[in-house]
Amino acid sequence: MVWVLLFVLIGGVILLGYMYLLSGNDHLQEKQLPCRGLDAHQRIQLLFISDIHNRKLKESTFKSMRSVDLVIIGGDFVDKRTSYERFMHNLSILKQWGAPVYFVPGNNDHEWKFGLFLDDLIKEEVIPLSNEDEYVELPNGTPVVLSALDPYFMKPNRNASYLEDENCLQILCVHDPYVFKRMNQVYKGRFDIVLCGHTHGGQIRLFGFGPYERGGWKIEGNQSFLVSEGYGTSLLPLRLGTKAECHWIELTPKH
User: Fold this and answer.
1) Which of 78, 66, 74, 72 is nearest to 117 (CA)?
2) How far apart are CA 147 and CA 173, in angstroms?
3) Contact status, residue 184 vs residue 224, Cβ threshold 8 Å
4) pTM of the model
5) Phi (first) and psi of residue 177, to 5 degrees
6) CA distance linking residue 199 with residue 213, whole number of Å
7) What are the pLDDT digits (tens) for 160-214?
8) Is 250 helix (H, G, I), strand (E, B) or coil?
9) Taking the mean position of all CA atoms in its chain, how far away is CA 212?
10) CA-CA distance, 254 to 233, in Å (whole number)?
11) Cβ neighbours, 10 Å, residue 205
12) Residues 127 and 103 sit within 8 Å (Cβ to Cβ)
């Protein structure tokens, strides 16, 4: 009996160590995505990352990216565990290309303990999007409309004045994919790309089962829909059956 208990204990420790290693093992997901909103000469290299929480970004992962024209942080950039030093380190990694950086709030960002989080982002030249639409002309001259849904900071919904421009690439970012699924069907269909996070892919999956579906891409007609499994972890720094990931997406014209 003692040997059985010892075996179970050792096995448990090994499993926990393996899960801890998985939580810190970066996966840079690269994808080329044809989009209807781009002209023949237009290209965009987009970095999307969500659910960093309390993780420290690995410099080596992000230095491997060839170029970045636009950075979107899809919520839960911080939580109650995040130090100000780590916040600044992670921002410095995401700002290294000189590309515009946009932030869409998640459910844990309100736990920031050093002041008003959105104001601190603005001080660091990160642009928060909270229930609003932003017309952006990227440094390479490509126009984009960025839209965001934010049920967490409860900012008032700004008039969606740019959404009628069908000649421009339209990207929606909403932290929780469930919020997107509850949107009006006509409104949902206006976007070329939808970027979400929140679920961590279930974070810990046993025998393929978890509290949420695995993340990944779904493409229906002209709309591409991504649920990222996130870069960090909530609560315990453990993963099983999911990936700690960020996304480098090359947007190209759709012929």
Assistant:
1) 78
2) 6
3) no
4) 0.93
5) -60, -25
6) 8
7) 555 555 578 999 999 999 999 888 877 888 899 999 999 999 999 998 888 999 9
8) strand
9) 16
10) 35
11) 17
12) yes
